[in-house]
């Protein structure tokens, strides 16, 4: 699931939702924009809502979760509630079968039209943020030992899943740089959010399946994926 945009009034709905996930899933992945305005009380609301979840949960933050500059405290609150924040390190299931690496990611555009670190200092700083986020996933995938590797981002690593969005906004929905470690270390599946008006399915240049789990893309509040359906990838 992605883009919960938890805010005032979300509490009762999400408490019931997380409880209902128990019967459907073995593990929950949350792909950022967990809050609406990055407020501490919104994070506390999520922490309370997940108290009914008895399955492991991993998450990355989204741009909305950075809005009030509370990102470290939000991660502390969510970790205290039992959600493993991938920004702080990878997660591997107890049986060693499935591993998760991830981070928020950042934007910059796709393929030959992506921003290059050239010219003005401010533009280099902008795209260096994307490289910095990508390097975290690179490091975590490199060290990960798991049969099936999942990468979770908020921003999209491919243009495919942004189809349907206005063309002017697409460079701000993700960046091809994010797909480099996925193909280098042959991950099996990539999940992301942020592209609310995009489509579900895409793939990296190396053929790794990408799934956009932003809630508005789906007519349900979470999507179930079975690792068996992706085990030939990567
Ligand atoms: Fe969002
Ligand atoms: Fe977002």
Q: How do the strands and helices of this protein lay out in sequence?
A:
Layout: H1 11-21, E1 28-31, H2 40-49, E2 57-60, H3 71-80, E3 83-85, E4 91-92, E5 98-103, H4 121-143, E6 148-153, H5 180-184, E7 189-192, E8 201-203, E9 209-212
Parallel strand pairs: 1-2, 2-3, 5-6, 6-7, 7-9
Antiparallel strand pairs: 4-5, 8-9
This protein binds fe (ii) ion (2 copies).
Overall description:
This protein has a single domain (11-230), classed as Metallo-dependent phosphatases (Purple Acid Phosphatase, chain A, domain 2, 4-Layer Sandwich), CATH 3.60.21.10. The chain has helices at residues 11-21, 40-49, 71-80, 121-143, 180-184, and strands spanning 28-31, 57-60, 83-85, 91-92, 98-103, 148-153, 189-192, 201-203, 209-212. 25% of the residues lie in helices and 15% in strands. It contains 5 helices and 9 strands; from the N terminus they run αβαβαβββαβαβββ. The chain has 234 residues and is an alpha/beta fold. Helix 1 packs parallel to helix 2 (40-49) and helix 2 (40-49) packs parallel to helix 3. One fe (ii) ion is lined by residues 33, 62-64, 154, 194.
């Amino acid at each position: 699931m992605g883009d919960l945009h938890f805010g005032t009034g979300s509490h009762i709905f999400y408490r019931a939702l997380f409880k209902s996930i128990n019967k459907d899933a073995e593990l929950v992945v949350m792909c950022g924009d967990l809050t609406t305005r990055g407020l501490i009380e919104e994070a506390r609301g999520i922490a309370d809502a997940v108290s009914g979840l008895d399955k492991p949960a991993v998450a990355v933050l989204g741009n909305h979760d950075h809005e009030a500059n509370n990102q470290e405290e939000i991660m502390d609150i969510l970790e205290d509630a039992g959600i493993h924040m991938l920004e702080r390190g990878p997660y591997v299931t107890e049986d060693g079968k499935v591993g998760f690496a991830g981070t928020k990611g950042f934007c910059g555009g796709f393929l030959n039209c992506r921003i290059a670190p050239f010219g003005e200092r401010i533009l280099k700083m902008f795209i260096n943020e994307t490289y910095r986020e990508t390097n975290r996933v690179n490091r975590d995938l490199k060290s990960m030992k798991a049969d099936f590797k999942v990468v979770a981002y908020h921003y999209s690593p491919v243009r495919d899943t942004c189809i349907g969005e206005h063309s002017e906004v697409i460079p701000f929905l993700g960046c091809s740089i994010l797909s480099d470690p996925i193909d280098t270390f042959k991950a099996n599946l990539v999940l992301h959010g942020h592209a609310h008006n995009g489509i579900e399915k895409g793939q990296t240049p190396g053929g790794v399946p990408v799934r956009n789990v932003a809630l508005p893309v789906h007519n349900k509040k979470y999507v179930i994926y079975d690792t068996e359906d992706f085990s030939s990838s990567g």
